[in-house]
Write a structure and sequence with these properties.
By secondary structure, the protein is of the alpha+beta class. It has one domain. About 20% of the residues lie in helices and about 25% in strands. The chain has a four-stranded antiparallel sheet. Strands 2-3 form a two-stranded parallel ribbon. α2 (about 75-85) packs across α3. The two termini are about 30 Å apart.
């Protein structure tokens, strides 16, 4: 369960169902993974098999549900950072520029972190203490 940055083509339109809800999609092409999951998933559960050179844009996803978008695709990491700072996390709230930059650089953050004696916080908002 996490937040992640995925590489997608510039014209990628994440699929929706008949009611307009996002259809969760794993970040692997079906043809590469179908044998590994032994029938547990269908082709619609996977992203298309794009050539790597077409995956030029960055998109913010949650993968608690196997993967639905939290942003549109952006041409640069800086544009994605700006979007995250402007919109925040829909569950955990505001994200600072430092937090967004770290997330985009790392390409992944846990959905949340529970710290004993403190409240649960969004994984993107957690910045550990510097080790001495």
């Amino acid at each position: 369960m996490a937040r992640e940055v995925r590489r997608v083509p510039p014209d990628w339109k994440h699929p929706k169902d008949e009611e307009g809800n996002w259809i969760p999609v794993l970040d692997q092409p079906y043809n590469a993974m179908k044998d590994e999951f032994d029938g547990a998933y269908d082709a619609i559960d996977f992203r298309p098999n794009w050539p790597v050179e077409e995956m030029t844009h960055y998109q913010w996803y949650e993968d608690v549900s196997e993967g639905t978008p939290m942003s549109p695709p952006f041409a640069t990491e800086a544009e994605l950072v700006d979007y995250i700072v402007e919109h925040g996390d829909p569950v955990y709230g505001d994200i600072t520029r430092e937090q967004a930059e770290r997330f985009v650089q790392e390409k992944w953050a846990p959905s949340f972190i529970g710290i004993p004696g403190k409240k649960m916080i969004g994984g993107m908002q957690y910045i550990p203490e510097e080790e001495e």
